Amino acid sequence: MKNESHRLVRKAIKGNKSAFEKLLQMHYERIYRTAYLYVHNEEDALDVVQEAAYQAFTSIHSLRQPEYFMTWLTRIVIRCSGQLLKRKSNVVPLSEEILSNLPNQTHSNIEQSLQLLNAIQQLKEKYRTVIILFYYHDYSIKTISNVLGIPESTVKTYLSRGKAELKKSYKMEEDTCHG
Amino acid sequence: MDNKEMKMTIDQIPVPKDKVFEAINKGLNKTTPRKKTGKKGLAAAVMAAALLGITVTTGFINPAVNRVLAKTPLIGGIFQDFHDAAGVELANQHAVTQLNQAVTKNGVTVKLTSAYFDGNVVSITGFVDKGVEKGHNEKGEVSFDLNFEDKNGDHDPWLRGLSHGIKKVENGYNFQWKMEWPYPSFKENSTLPITIHNINGIKGEWKFDIPIQQDKNRTIAINQEKGYPEDGVKIRIKEILTAKASSSIVYETIQKYKRENIEIEAVDNKGKVYRFVNGSTLEESKQEDGYHSTVRKGMTKLNSTATSLTFYPYLSAADPKVQKLLNSKSFTLKSTRFNLGLQVNDVTQNGEKLVIDYQLKGLPKNLSEGKLETINHNLKYLFWLVDKEYLDKIDPDNAWPPKNHGIPFNKVKMIDKEAAHFQSTFDLSGEERIENFKLENTIMLFDFSSFVPSKELKPITVELPGGEE
Question: From the CB of residue B439, how many other CB atoms can be counted at a distance below 10 Å?
């Protein structure tokens, strides 16, 4: 799979659009969910996917190392999400719509998931990005530092502050729910 | 909280696969807006890929879809594969027409299996056998070149709102085409002729006549208008149609400036949020009071107990591109509508590179890092260099510099943050270039629109006459 992916990346760098489309399709869930974590509604997340696909394809020739494709693409998705939020400067709150879209699990699980998504949404943007990259994308501190172009020490600080805030609001909501 | 919990939570965010694929496809095709030569353009080709073993679904099933599926007739299964909740609902209500039309040409069999017409949405599902794998696409990809009615190539209003899904099944692929009814008035019963010209490069033709029918929609006439003289915009909410599984809205915008984008969200008196998707332009005209455009958009199904609906419009202002012949080294360009300017300090050609040194004027002071980064990024796309002889060859409906006569990208370097001072470098020998480049024959175009944030317009509340037919 990895080799297949690298082969596609190399083709894409040379400007092969169909290879590039396949690559994005291979990672569509991750791309979409990353966008969704920022914009919190389907329509905007799809706009981000579209814009990121466009921006990525117009600049993929500048990608030197195929193995960094995903981190490079993630950076574009995050940037496009940020651009969209800034343009709209209205953050759509987590609504019942999301609740009804969540898979049919036990009720408490849904509540917990919602709390966590809510808590992520409330984080400051820089903390949120680091948290998403670390926990969802499984990137190392070093990779995150490369992706965001900030020193590793700053990544560590953001991560621990983000975690602390997340715990605080997650915990607080849990307390309110159970209390 | 640990990684696993976080991941599991995030993985529960439902992903509308066909829409994501469509967004990817649209994003990529934005980079080649120039149509290919020959009688059919890109838009006439529908392509989707069912990547074998790669796009294994997460097992996520929308609970609403899941619940009803148990009692859904067989045809509902295909809608579930394409995450089409409306399709599943219609299958339950027995409002989907089952078809059994098969045509074989050049060793490829196409069978159309179902059709529904609900509100403004027309869906057709079908199956194409594995004969398509002999075509020039890679395995797992299926692309149809097709037209509806007697239309040809890109001049087919059905193609504008077409989305598609594909799924590998035994011996071939299932597919769904979803279209928007492209005309101002509805026909409740009609047949839709379809011609597939080629599939994966294999020539046809495969011809079908598909019955499409639906019961009468519930139409609520609204005809309420609000003007925003300061922004040169008027919005007229015309009507809402509610069908079995979906609603759609028709509204008209009247704008002083062309190409401005108005997005609308709505909330009813019970707090239900409505989103509007896709949309077909039913009528467009330029009149004395501005550019009129009537659109029909799909929307979340209208709650039958709602008594009022409040619309929240957002306006993304457009500023016409400004332009200047590069026959001088320094000049200033001003935005047509906003208090923004571009002061060009120097234009230098170094062999195959052209460097433009400039400052942005009128931006707010103390821009945040993030905002600067965004500007820095956007600047890559905001300049176009175009051969002056080819300026009128830019298609206004699909604006892009003419191939071999324009450069749409540049590399940006920030020189001084405080002074909003940047340098853009254009590659004169890149893939996008200007043949026989001469500075004095080159026009620089600049777009200020992206520096203006979208604006929330005052909401419009309309009363809904309950149950009116």
Answer: 16
Q: What is the mean pLDDT of chain A?
A: 73
Four-point Cα dihedral A78, A79, A82, A87, nearest 10 = -140
Task: List pLDDT tens digits, range A146-156.
Answer: 777 778 888 88
Q: Is the predicted pLDDT of residue B193 greater than 90, yes or no?
A: yes
Tell me the per-residue pLDDT of B130-158, one tens digit each, with 9 for 90 and over.
Answer: 998 888 766 667 878 888 998 877 678 88
B453 in reach of chain A (CB within 8 A): yes
Tens of pLDDT, residues B285-320 = 899 999 999 989 888 889 888 999 999 888 877 788
> What's the whole-number mean pLDDT along residues B441-453?
86
Quick one: which H or E segment has residue B114? Answer: strand B108-118
Chain A residues 17-56 with CB within 8 Å of chain B: 17-18, 20-22, 24-26, 28-29, 31-33, 36-37, 41-43, 46-47, 49-54
* Total of domains in chain B: 3
CA–CA separation, A12 and A7 (whole Å): 9
What count of residues does chain A have?
179
The answer to whether B454 contacts chain A (CB < 8 Å) is yes
Q: What angle separates helix A107-122 from helix A152-178, to the nearest 10 degrees?
A: 140
Dihedral angle at the C-alpha atoms of B220, B271, A36, A47, nearest 10 degrees?
Answer: 30
Test B275 with A22 for CB contact under 8 angstroms: no
B411 lies within 8 A of chain A by CB: no
In 3D space, the residue among B115, B59, B65, B63 whose CA is nearest the CA of residue B88 turns out to be B65
Per-residue DSSP letter, B186: -
Confidence of residue B347 (pLDDT cuts 50, 70, 90): very high
Percent of chain B with pLDDT over 90: 34
CATH number of the domain bearing residue B296: 2.60.40.1640
Contact B66 A104 (CB under 8 A): yes
| Rounded CA separation B202/B131 (Å) | 10
Separation of alpha carbons B382 and B447, rounded Å? 5
Same-domain status, B274 and B377: no
Q: Which of B16, B22, B28 sits opposite A57 (nearest CB)?
A: B28
Query: Residues B98, B40: one domain?
Result: yes
Last residue of a domain, one of B188, B213, B238: B213
Report the complex ipTM: 0.78
Q: Model's pTM, two decimal places?
A: 0.56
Tens-digit pLDDT profile for residues B358-370: 999 988 777 776 6
Identify the domain containing residue B352 by its residue range. 322-451
Structure confidence by residue, pLDDT tens digits, B222-239: 899 999 998 889 999 999
Phi and psi of B175, rounded to 5°? Answer: -140, 160
Token pair listed for B11: 């993985």
Tally of CB atoms within 10 A around B97 = 18
Domains and CATH numbers, chain A: 1-90 (1.10.1740.10), 105-179 (1.10.10.10)
